[in-house]
Structures are given as C-alpha cells and as structure tokens.
Automatic annotation (TrEMBL):
Residue span(s) of domain Ribophorin II N-terminal: 29-275
Keywords: Endoplasmic reticulum, Membrane, Signal, Transferase, Transmembrane, Transmembrane helix
Task performed by this protein: Subunit of the oligosaccharyl transferase (OST) complex that catalyzes the initial transfer of a defined glycan (Glc(3)Man(9)GlcNAc(2) in eukaryotes) from the lipid carrier dolichol-pyrophosphate to an asparagine residue within an Asn-X-Ser/Thr consensus motif in nascent polypeptide chains, the first step in protein N-glycosylation. N-glycosylation occurs cotranslationally and the complex associates with the Sec61 complex at the channel-forming translocon complex that mediates protein translocation across the endoplasmic reticulum (ER). All subunits are required for a maximal enzyme activity.
Main localization category: endoplasmic reticulum
Domain (Ribophorin II C-terminal): residue spans on this chain: 549-647
Membrane topology label: Multi-pass membrane protein
Cited InterPro entries: Ribophorin_II_2nd, Ribophorin_II_3rd, Ribophorin_II_C, Ribophorin_II_N, Swp1
Database matches in PANTHER family: DOLICHYL-DIPHOSPHOOLIGOSACCHARIDE--PROTEIN GLYCOSYLTRANSFERASE SUBUNIT 2, RIBOPHORIN II
Superkingdom assignment: Eukaryota
Organism: Dinothrombium tinctorium
Pathway: Protein modification; protein glycosylation
Record protein name field: Dolichyl-diphosphooligosaccharide--protein glycosyltransferase subunit 2
Cell compartment(s), UniProt: Endoplasmic reticulum membrane
Length: 651
C-alpha cells in the first residue's frame, strides 16, 4: 500500500466511528480468535501432578472449540498418561487435598478414564461436606464426588451450603454456591437459594451503558452467570435477568475474548457455550462484514448474523434493513455461508454516513432470541469527485481583479515558474464536484502544501470554501507579506501541491501544481540553520548551571568561646577544691576487680564524651557508648552490692 493510500485509509477510520449504537452484540468468536485460544490450550507431555490445574482448563477449552472431539484434542498415548497421572493422585489419599481431587476427577470425567472410587477416596471427600467448610471446599468436594459417579445427600448438603454462604457472601462464593446448588435434588433444597439471584444481580457494575460485569473481572463474572443459568434451569425458576442485562453481560464477555491465560480462556468459553443454547436467553450477534465503505460500483451491504460462538443460529431467518439509505428491505442469504446476508442498494443513494437498523426474525418464533431487533450498523456511501475551474496566479497585494490567473486541468502542472515577492499574494481557486450527484461539495481535508526545494521544509495551509453561494468555490489567498513568518522568511523555490481527501471520497489525491519562487526582504534573510531546521544540532553543550550556596554565618569572637569553656570547667574545679578542704575518704573502697573496671569504665565514658565534643559524630559515639555503658553498669552493680554487704556485716 502506498503512503497516500495508507493515509486516507487511516483517515477513513478516524473520521467516523463505525460501532453499533444499540445493545446488540456487534462481535463474536471469529476464526482467528479460535486459533489464538487453541494455542493457549496446548498440552506438552510429560505431565506432572503440578500441571493438573492447567490440564483441566486446557481440556475444557479445547473440547469446547473442537465440539467435544476428544481424539482431535488428545492423542491416545497422552490420554493414557493422563489417566495414569490422575489415578495416582486420587489413590494417594494420605496426601490428597480437595483442590487436587477436584481437578484430577474432572480430568478423569472429561477424557473418560476408569473411575477411581475407592472407599478411602469417597471417605476423604465426604469429610469436607460438613459444617465449617468453606463454599469453595464444598463445591470442590461435591463436584469431585459427582465426577467419580457418587451421589449427593441433597438435604444435608443444602443446609451446610446455606450456613457456609452466610459466613462468606462474597461474589465468588455466591457463584460457586449457585453452581453447586444446581446439582441438588428436590425443590425444597433449591428454594433457599432462589431469592439470592436478585440480590447478586444488583451488585453488577455497568460500563458505558453497554457492558455489565461484577467486581473482580472475568473469572468472578463468568462463575456467577454460569451459576445463575444452571441453577435457574435446575430449579425451573425465572432467570432473574432482563433481556437487556443479559445482552450487556454478553457484550462484556465478548470484549474479553483476547484473554491470555488458559484459566480465563476456559471460563470465557464455558459461558459463551452456555449462551449458545439455554432455556432463557440466546443473544444474536449482528456485525458488518468487511469494510464499512460501499460505493455505486460496489453497492452491496453485507452483514453477519450469528451466535456468540460465530456459528449459525440454526434456524431460518429473515433479516430486514430499515434506513434512509435502504428503505425497508430484506437481506438475501449468501449461498455457502448461513451466517452471511447481503443487500444491494439503489444507485441513486447520496454520499454520506448512514445508520442501518436491522431486525432478525426467525421463521418460527423463539422468545429466547435477544438482541435481534434494532441492531444498528453504520456504513459509508462513497463517491468520486472531480476538480474543476482551477486557477492559480500571482497578483499585487492591493490588486482587486485577478487577470493574471492561469487555468489548470487535473493532473497537469503549470509549465513556468511563478514568481512572487512580499508585496504580492498567491491566489488559488478551484471547485470540487461530486461525479455521481453532480453538485459541488466540500471536503474535510483541503490543504495547500509548500515544500522548499533546497531544505525540504514543508509549510501547510488550509484552503477554505465559500459556501455563501449555491456553487461552492474554494479560494486560497496567500498574502506573502503577512504570512512570511510561516516560511521563516526563507526565500527560494517552493513546490506547490494540493491535497484533497474526505471519508466519503473514494479517489483522494495529491496534485503537484507547479513551482513558485518566493522573495522576502534581504534584511530578513534567514541563516542556513533556519533554512533547514533539521540541520540544527540537538546535542550541543548546555550552559553551565552555577549554584550560589548560602554564605556561612559569622562566628562570635574567640574570647566568647574561651569564656564559655572556662565556665564549663568551673564546677569541676569547685569539686576538686571541696574535696581538698573536706578530705577524701578512700578507706571503704574494697580492693577488687569490679572497682577497677567500674572506675576505668566511668573514666572512659567521660573520655568518649570529650571525643564526641571534638571529632566523633552521634552514631559512632552511641556505638561505643553501648559497650562501655554495659561494662560500667555491670561492674558498678557488683561494686554497690559488695559495699552494701560489707555495711550490713559491720552493723
């Protein structure tokens, strides 16, 4: 694809939003989605006990995509290996937990292995069906028993499940409880859970008026919807979801079809499979087929009508379109594809964007079909344009008439080089005409491009239409004196091109009109770097950053600090004087090791404080002080104890 074609293809998609405005799902599981999801479910032997979770979800997803064809999913040798692995897990009851039991027994059921139903295994699983177990444990244990062919005690399990759900009413537990309750027998055992459907549905969050989901994402939403539908079917009760709510949940699930893990993909496919066939709701997906653009050379609107899995709805359908473009007409089914329908429109249709309202009616009424009325798709009626009455020339800025304009016909260019200075202006006139309708029209993109032949600098201007008259005329008037700044005042030759495009135009074009030599005042000539901005260096040295630090505050005179030091020493000198006057009595000091250690330690602490004052920081001082302080404390305690004992003996 050329750059021009790519640009206008992008333009087409950006200008109009081609999404459905109704709730009807506008997408489904397509072939490329199936292939991508299948790649997530690849199983690579040898298999280990730690892989049972992935194997479980991979088998579920693969069997849904392969229509339960086990042979195409799992070779015979791999099946035998999996049966051996699961049998080993289920028979090793001493190390068995409810999670492994659930996934291993599910695999056994999915691939048809011989069912291991030893009394020890059944006893271990039944041990989980008691008061105090969580909803998840009850769900796993009960389903494990069902997987190995055992029956459930419905009255007992119903009471236990109600108690567990009261203790944990989270969304995930509620969804699992619905799924487990759907396996119970007896209306009296199901009735306590019926009213909880409406309680959980109101907790759904709406997104953009088109989606509904539960907090927690795809896994929780899928579990709840699976639980609600399976439980309502088992209890033979109303589903508790309106048609619009069901469609919004469907839109959410289809928006998550790009999931990246086997677990999420399997949960998505389980709920989509449910929405293909159940007794309550079957969503109808209506989407446009291929490009939204149609034209008089290809006046066919094609749509796909399918279920969420992208397959036929399995019944005769009448697909009716109703819009300004089509009137009320029926689509015709396309031979060889039961999901594809086509409608040929009238060649007199005018250009523009149209909403097509589509109704899908089965030959035999089916109240389960939802989203099958007022589905909206948008299409673009394209047209071809011609450009006429093209005139280009240079006139003086104060000149009223345009006698010097040169006529051009697409796609030819002017042969001579136009010359203009800052006292003149460049004029371009043209008309765009719809070839089909015959009237003049405007385009969303009408640009005049100037490219400097030396520096390749591009300057783009918008051509404005004059819509005040019946015939729309574009006039581009460039006053070089007032617009010289746009050219960076760079004189030289410029290539002139006209760019025309619109989302309804099937033949957009870029027309090279010719060259013009522009002259700006000499005093305003630009440097070479200005002429070619791409020549400027972006890696030159940056100016030095000079930081001014705050000036240090002026210190007080030395006599002040000396006086303070003397004053600090005065109490010590007074102490020495008093000791000399009163006399020091050292007779009671015992001669022992603790005395020496205590006084040395005390002196060391004073010396440490002196070092702290002179050069040490606080953290270093604390580190040394901890050691000296501990030694001094212990030796001092020993000294005081000895003195106290000696004094008691003297008494």
């Amino acid at each position: 694809m050329t750059r021009k074609a790519a640009f206008f293809a992008f333009l087409l998609n950006c200008c109009v939003y081609f999404a459905h405005s109704s709730l009807t799902p506008n997408t489904f599981l397509e072939d490329e989605d199936r292939l991508r999801l299948l790649s997530l479910f690849q199983l690579n032997p040898p298999f280990a006990a730690s892989d049972v979770v992935k194997i479980h979800y991979s088998l579920i997803g693969s069997l849904i995509l392969k229509n339960n064809d086990l042979n195409s999913v799992l070779p015979s040798k791999d099946k035998a290996d999996l049966c051996t692995l699961c049998d080993g897990i289920l028979t090793n009851v001493e190390q068995l937990n409810v999670e492994n039991a659930y996934f291993a027994s599910s695999i056994v059921k999915l691939i048809g292995c011989k069912t291991p139903n030893s009394p020890k295994l059944i006893s271990v699983l039944n041990a989980y069906l008691k008061e105090g177990s969580t909803v998840a444990e009850l769900h796993r244990a009960a389903n494990s028993l069902l997987n190995i062919g055992q029956s459930l005690d419905s009255p007992k399990l119903s009471k236990i499940l109600q108690t567990a759900l009261k203790n944990d009413e989270s969304l995930l537990s509620t969804g699992l409880a619905f799924q487990l309750a759907s396996n119970l027998k007896g209306a009296e055992n199901l009735q306590p859970f019926v009213e909880k459907i409406s309680d959980v549905v109101v907790q759904a969050d709406e997104i953009d008026g088109r989606l509904l989901q539960f907090e927690g994402g795809l896994g929780i939403t899928a579990n709840i919807i699976l639980g609600i539908y399976s439980f309502a079917t088992a209890a033979n009760k109303p589903i508790g979801l309106t048609n619009d709510q069901s469609i919004k949940f469907t839109n959410y699930f289809l928006s998550r079809k790009t999931v990246q893990t086997p677990k999420s993909a399997a949960e998505l496919l389980q709920v989509l499979k449910l929405l293909v066939d159940n007794k309550y709701h079957i969503p109808v997906c209506v989407s446009r087929y291929q490009s939204p653009a149609i034209s008089h050379s290809n006046p066919v609107i094609s749509v796909r009508v399918a279920n969420v899995m992208g397959k036929s709805l399995g019944r005769d359908l009448k697909v009716t379109a109703n819009s300004e473009l089509t009137g009320k007409k029926n689509f015709q089914s396309v031979q060889g594809d039961s999901t594809l329908f086509a409608l040929k429109i009238d060649n007199k249709a005018r250009r523009g964007a149209y909403n097509i309202s589509i109704d899908v009616t089965p030959s035999k009424a089916d109240p389960r079909l939802i989203g099958n009325t007022n589905a909206v798709v948008k299409v673009i009626m394209m047209t071809e344009i011609s450009i006429e009455n093209v005139e280009i020339g240079v006139v003086d800025s104060d000149q009223v008439t345009s006698s010097k304009l040169t006529e051009l016909k697409y796609p030819s260019s002017i042969t001579q080089v136009l010359e203009a200075d800052y006292q003149q202006k460049l004029i371009l006139k043209f008309v765009l005409r719809d070839k089909i309708a015959g009237d003049t029209m405007t385009a969303h993109q009408a640009f005049v491009l100037f490219v400097n032949e030396e520096s390749k600098q591009e300057i783009v201007f918008v051509a404005e239409p004059d819509t005040s008259k019946p015939e729309i005329v574009y006039k581009f008037d460039l006053n070089l004196n007032t617009r010289s700044k746009d050219f960076s005042h760079i004189s030289g030759r410029y290539q002139i091109s006209l760019i025309i495009g619109d989302f309804v135009v099937s033949n957009p074009f870029v027309w090279k009109l010719g060259s013009v030599k522009l002259t700006f005042p000499a005093s305003r000539e630009a440097t070479q770097a200005e002429k070619a901005p791409w020549m400027k260096t972006h890696y030159s040295m940056k100016p030095e950053i000079k930081h001014m630090f705050r000036q240090q505050e002026k210190r007080p005179p030395a006599i002040v600090s000396d006086t303070f030091s003397v004053l600090v020493c005065v109490p010590f000198l007074i102490l020495l004087g008093l000791w000399a006057k009163l006399g020091i009595n050292l007779k009671n000091i015992p001669i022992c090791l603790s005395v020496v250690i205590f006084h040395v330690g005390l002196g060391s602490i004073f010396a440490l404080f002196a070092c702290f004052w002179l050069k040490l920081n606080m953290f270093t001082t604390i580190k040394y002080l901890l050691g000296l302080g501990l030694i001094t404390f212990l030796s001092g305690h020993s000294l005081l104890s000895r003195l106290a004992s000696k004094r008691a003996e003297q008494k």
